[in-house]
Amino acid sequence: MDFSTQVSSVKTASDIVEWLFKASVYRHVLNNGLTLVHRPDFSSEVVSVQVWVKTGSIHEGSLMGSGLSHYLEHLLFKGTTLREGKSISREVHAMGSSINAYTTFDRTVYYFDGPSIAFKAAVDLLADIVLCSTLPEEEVEREREVILREIDMGLDDPDQKLSQALFRTAFQKHPYREPVIGHRELYERVSREDLIAYYRARYVPNNMVISVAGSISWEDCSRFVEERFASEPRGLLLPVLLESESVQLTPRREDIIGEYNVVRGDMGFKVPNFSHEDSPSLDVLAYALGGGEDSILWERLRNQKNLVHYIDCRNWNPGSSGLLCISYVCDPGKGAVVESAVWSVIQNVIRNGLAELVVDKARRQSLVAEVDVRKTMNGQASRLGFGEVVVGDINYMRHYFSRLQTVSTKELQEVAIRYLVEEGMSTVTLGPKSETDDTEANPKDVLPPNPFKLVELDGGLRLLIQEDHRLPKVHLCCVLLGGPMYEPANQRGVSSLLAELLIKDTANRRASEIAEFIESLGGKMVASAGNNTIHLSIEVLPADIDVAIELLADALLCPIFETDTLQTELEAQIAELKERDDDILEYGFRKLREYFFGSHPFAIGADGRIEDLRSLRKADIKAYYEQIVLSENAVLSVCGAFDPIAVQSQLNETIATKILSAPFVKSDLPAYDGPKAVNLIKHMNREQAVVLQAFPDVGILDDDFVVGEVLNELFNGMSSHLFERVRDDKSLAYYVGSTRILGLKSSLFALYAGTQSTQIDEVIKEMNRELVRVATGHVLENELARCRTRLKAARLIGRQTIGARAINAAIHLTYGLPPLYDDDEYAAKLDTCDSAKLAEFAGGFLIPKRRVQLVVRAKKP
């Protein structure tokens, strides 16, 4: 069934619920107990096939806390009776598809996403993995080391550490107290025999659900699944007894002290499972309290009192019980004040309830979130699997969302009284030593990392280094000027393709070897291209920095662009372009960009266009590589825990002395002034419509760039004047905001909104009214104050990680900007950006005579 032709108009929440669940859903139980659920969707020739095994960390019995389920998940990709381990990924990639898995407390899910023509092969492959894995002895030991690194990395991750602390504090008997990945000392004792026994006991057909969504008929779907799974005999599935959690009678608390720069906190309250009658009310309550920047906690604690940098509330309840959890990040010394303020908000809700407007927003947020999940076949299959496995009824979600839309303010007040009780609260924090602590402070707790140091290697290759020994990680990256401004006119998208191929096959290693090698290190190697740059990065533990440098050197110096890999990545890039065009907003932005920039290189995004990609050949990739990957165009950056002298010496020897040293020709195109004003209409077979307006914008190197940043912030967020008027006050749009497509000399500033065809004109009027308000200097100081605060905080939050700092510093230097962060200078620029400057900027750029307006609306009947 093609979802795009189902509904003529969707006006109310109940209409949306009816639309979401109108499509046919099939369910069939095979004779051996395996359950198949399927939702046909022929809107795109894509299919998602998922095998949900009803086993997770809470089902590990006498090996509870060992991470047995997660360990087994890794090993099922390492070989079967029919396939070698390496052949699995090769087979998937050859189909232009992807395969992966995850493990939770109560389930392990293996999922395949790819073209629908690969459905039969996907079913065969997944059946082979879940039913016929051999768990090779050598792979058991090899993967043990990989997961040990993963455990160590989790212990180093503040957010994971905090989450584990919350669960062991809130649940003191139930298996939720144990981390899914396991405790290191217990995990190290797991034997191959333990894994085999667990596999045979839990991976049986009557403990599995296959969930399918996509372009495959029910007849073909059920036939292929029957052919591959029906012959597997039903297993003797013994029940796993779970110790129930006692009623919590007093508040619980755990405070973790360590080398951290900020305080992270979680406040959790026990709640019933998803299928409980109170679940919809608890979800709405969580959204109202902390479901975004317009939520109560965000507005009170962040915007009004400036107590936190971040705060949210979520209702986690997919198992036998759950937690309604409030999470925050604040400066040291503020934790107690934050907790008191949160408790004050809760008490106010308990005493006075919530305003109907707040409740209505929260209901809508939850409904929109459900709609968003269903954008992809993977999301649809996941919802089916969730309904069948977690809830036990694939039709329950319809009842749940119908019930959610009727939740009243009184019901929210009642569930707040029932569940948000102090005696049942579990609080955990993670942060630096308190200033009131009597013990001597460690300088590492308070001192920021050293600034980046610029070093010139042999041949003029630039290197940025920053030591940061707070965590045992190192991030190494290379940034190059590239993207649309450097691509041949008929080879758009070659930058993104080159970026991906650089980290694949080299003269020394094949792509599969590199991927396996990186995985064995517990590291990560990625590459991407944007509007202005190409970048490659590797993040590893300090002991593996030599290997990381070697891999980066191979990527930069000796890529071979192997034909099969090139074709696979090319098709994947094309498929991603097609997938984006299925989304009406993505499609609108692509067309808007084309119309606005015309013959300018920025008309096409970094991912390119399909016709150009299809014509690319190996020689084209190589020629572009030789144009871009040059010593003069490269900036290396290293951040983390490393020996700077040793790293500098090794980079000099392995890369600087060997990288191509030909002159690099920078783009000399002048700034783009924008096209003539035009109003355009496109049609698409979708229910909603989108309105987009594009204007010329200054480039990154322009002195007024920060003014554009403030304007972009002004138009975004749930507390923006534009959002409140268009979305909240007049209910004209599902979403509304702004964005920028940034170049060094020229950029595009865009307003966008998702609405209904009947409300397009009203949305345009409101957009224009907002632009006039800004251009005439009527922006209020409190609006600007919020914008400045958010931009300053985003700057700090955005460079918390070594990876973000390494890449941002290298990009700045590549642009010709100082690589060092000058917060005082940035803050000063923001503070001088008043309503007059915004008016001058908007009056020069965001005006009708410089506007390209594009409306994408439903096709005429």
Description of the structure:
This protein is an alpha+beta fold and 861 residues long. Helix 2 (68-75) packs across helix 8 and helix 29 packs antiparallel against helix 31. The two termini are 19 Å apart. Mean pLDDT is 89; it is low at 1-11 and 436-446.
Brief characterization of the structure:
The chain is of the alpha+beta class and 861 residues long. The protein contains 32 helices and 22 strands. The chain is globular and about 75 Å long.
State the helical fraction.
40-55%
Mean pLDDT: 89
Q: Helical segment tally?
A: 32
Q: What is the terminal separation in angstroms?
A: 19 Å
CA radius of gyration is 28 Å
Strand-residue proportion? 15-25%
Largest sheet: 6 strands, mixed
Widest sheet: strand order? 1-2-6-3-5-4
- The unreliable regions are 1-11, 436-446
**Secondary structural class:** alpha+beta
Number of strands: 22
Shape type? globular
What are the defining features of this structure?
6-stranded mixed sheet, alpha+beta, 861 residues, single chain, 32 helices
